[in-house]
Amino acid sequence: MPMNGKSPKEIRYIVAVSSMAPVLARMWKSLIEEESPPLIEAGPEGEAACSRTVAHMLEDTDRCISFMALSDTRPIGFILGHTYNRPYGHPAFAGQILHWYVAPGFRGKGVGHCLYDRLMEWFQKKNVEIVEVMALDDPKRDKGWRSRGFTVSLRVYAKRLSSPSRT
After folding, report:
1. What is the pLDDT of residues 62-72, one digit of tens each?
2. Is the pLDDT of residue 11 over 50?
3. How do the domains of the chain map onto residue ranges?
4. 80 and 24 in contact (C-beta within 8 Å)?
């Protein structure tokens, strides 16, 4: 299947390292701009803050990983996941899909599936017992997650509070 003139085999998938955090943050900002959840926005410092946080996370290679899709050398998508031990309850060892993004021109071509499959394989190698994801409350998203075997287990409610400006 052609992908902007490329076959799926010409898309490369790599493990992102902390020095790639600014690229991941740029894609994260695109994700937020396209489909920001209610009450959430990137904000003026969002991309820089995301870059710092992701760089720090990716330094912990035992608990965090990001796979990036490249067309030639151009980043076209990523998925970011991490693991953690629940302080209580079972299953105790959990994985979370934090962010998943594919550039618009590459959607519907299997890139997202390849990113997802790589992360799920990593979770399995880590012996993760349960995978969680917070997703936009949307029927299309719900159908997509259910088709991958996910079940709704919680709803996240949010409320903005007025607070003093952060410096």
Report:
1. 999 999 999 99
2. yes
3. 10-147
4. yes
Contacts for 155-162: CB closer than 8 Å, 24+ residues apart? 158/37, 158/38, 158/39, 158/40, 159/39, 160/39
Helical H runs in the chain? 21-35, 46-59, 111-125, 139-147
> Is the CATH number 3.40.630.30 carried by domain 10-147?
yes
CA dihedral 76, 136, 25, 115 (to 10 degrees): -40
CA distance 114 to 100: 11
Sign of CA dihedral 83, 85, 87, 91: positive
Per-residue confidence (pLDDT) for residue 2, from 0 to 100: 43
User: What is this structure's pTM?
Assistant: 0.86
Residue-wise pLDDT for 115-139, tens only, equals: 999 999 999 999 999 999 988 888 9
Total Cβ atoms within 10 A of residue 146: 11
Question: Of the candidates 35, 89, 28, 88, which has an alpha carbon nearest to the alpha carbon of residue 57?
Answer: 28
